[in-house]
Specification:
This protein is an alpha/beta fold. The protein is 54% helix and 13% strand.
Length: 318
C-alpha cells in the first residue's frame, strides 16, 4: 500500500511502469534529483520482472515520499486512473518509466501549473524534431500526425504533440477528469478532455531519446493505433455529436442525390420513372440522412446539458 501523506503534497510524480526493470531505477533517481521535494509513485501493473521490487527499494533508499501502487487491471489508462484516485497533490507530473523523457525539464513543466498559468503543460517531443529523429518506428510518426490533424481539425486547436506521455496537470484538472480508457488511448483522451472542457494547455518543447538498448516498448503499432483512432471517433460521437452525425447525414444526402440522377433524368425525358429500385434507394438514403440529423440534434442537446452540469460542478468545487 502506498504511503499516504498527511497533507496534500505539492507535486506528485506518477510513473506508470510495466516490465521496466532496465530503466525504472534510473528514472526514479532522475526525477528525485530534479524534484527533491516531490512525492514519487510508480504504478506497477502485474510486471513479470523485478520492476516493483526495484522501484520499492530505490524509493525507500532515497527516502522518497510516495511508493509503489499495484493495479491489477492491465493498461496504462487503468494504471493512471488508479494513481489519480489514490494520490493527492497540487500538481501531477506524469512521465514514462522508460528513460525517454528528460527529467531535468520537470521544473519547467510544473512551474506554469504551480503559478496558475496553465491547467496542463505537455512535454512536446515533436516541435524540436526529437521524436522524428529518435523513434525508430516510422508508422508511429505518421500515427501521431494523423491523430494531431484530426484533433486540430475538429477542435480548431493547434496541438503539436497530442500523444506525449510527459505532462504536468493541475489538481482541478485531474480530479475532474473521468478517465474511461484502459490503455494507450489515455494520452489522446486526456488531450481531448482538456480541449473539450476548455482547460488551458501549454506545450513546451522537450528533448526525447529512444529507449535504451535492452528496454522494450509496450506499444503495438497496429492494435494500439487502431484503438487510438477508435477513441477519437468515440469522443467525437460523444462530445461533438452534431458535427459527427451531420457528417454522416451529408454523406447519405450526397449518395442519395447521385442515386437519384437517373430517376430525375427519366422524369424529365419521359414523365415516367423506369429506374424504380434507384428511386427507392435514393429516397431511403435521404430518409436515413434526415434521421442522422435528428439523432445529432438530440444528442447535441444532451451534450450541451452535460457540459452545463460539468461547468457548474467545476465552479462549485472551487
Ligand atoms: N502500469 C502500466 N504501465 C504501462 C502499461 N503499458 C505501458 N506502461 C508504461 O507506460 C509507459 C509508456 O509505455 P511505452 O511502451 O514506452 O509506450 P510509448 O512511450 O508510447 O512507446 P515507445 O515510443 O515505443 O516508447 C512506460 O513507462 C510503460 O512501462 C501497463 O499496462 N501498465
Ligand atoms: Mg516510451
Amino acid at each position: 500500500m502506498p504511503h499516504r501523506p498527511e497533507s496534500i503534497a505539492a507535486v506528485a510524480v506518477i510513473l506508470p511502469a510495466y516490465n521496466e526493470e532496465a530503466t525504472v531505477e534510473a528514472v526514479i533517481r532522475a526525477f528525485r534529483a530534479a524534484l527533491p521535494d516531490a512525492a514519487l509513485y510508480v504504478v506497477d501493473n502485474n510486471s513479470q520482472d523485478a520492476t516493483a521490487r526495484v522501484a520499492a527499494d530505490v524509493l525507500a533508499a532515497l527516502g522518497c515520499e510516495g511508493g509503489v501502487i499495484h493495479e491489477p487491471r492491465q493498461g496504462k489508462g487503468n494504471a493512471l486512473r488508479r494513481a489519480f484516485m489514490e494520490v493527492d497533490a497540487q500538481v501531477y507530473l506524469i512521465a514514462d518509466a522508460d528513460l525517454t523523457y528528460p527529467a531535468d525539464r520537470a521544473m519547467d513543466l510544473i512551474a506554469p501549473v504551480l503559478q496558475g498559468r496553465a491547467d496542463m503543460v505537455v512535454g512536446d517531443r515533436q516541435s524540436g524534431g526529437h521524436y522524428e529523429r529518435e523513434n525508430k518506428r516510422r508508422l508511429h510518426g505518421l500515427g501521431n500526425r494523423l491523430v494531431g490533424g484530426l484533433i486540430n481539425f475538429f477542435f480548431s486547436s493547434r496541438i503539436r504533440d497530442p500523444m506525449s506521455g510527459y505532462r504536468a496537470c493541475s489538481r482541478t484538472f485531474i480530479k475532474n477528469y473521468a478517465l474511461l480508457v484502459e490503455g494507450f488511448q489515455i494520452e489522446t483522451d486526456i488531450t481531448l478532455h482538456a480541449l473539450d472542457k476548455r482547460f488551458r494547455i501549454l506545450e513546451l518543447p522537450v528533448e526525447y531519446v529512444d529507449r535504451p538498448p535492452g528496454s522494450e516498448s509496450k506499444l503495438s503499432t497496429v492494435t494500439d493505433g487502431a484503438k487510438v483512432l477508435f477513441t477519437i471517433l468515440q469522443i467525437l460521437r460523444y462530445y461533438r455529436p452534431l458535427a459527427f452525425f451531420t457528417t454522416i447525414a451529408a454523406v447519405c444526402v450526397a449518395a442519395g442525390l447521385i442515386a437519384a440522377i437517373p430517376v430525375f433524368d427519366d422524369w424529365l425525358r419521359y414523365r415516367y420513372i423506369y429506374h424504380v429500385p434507384l428511386a427507392i434507394l435514393a429516397a431511403a438514403l435521404e430518409i436515413v440522412a434526415a434521421l442522422m440529423l435528428a439523432v445529432g440534434l438530440v444528442l447535441d442537446s444532451i451534450a450541451h446539458q452535460q457540459k452545463t452540469n460539468y461547468e457548474l460542478r467545476l465552479l462549485s468545487g472551487r
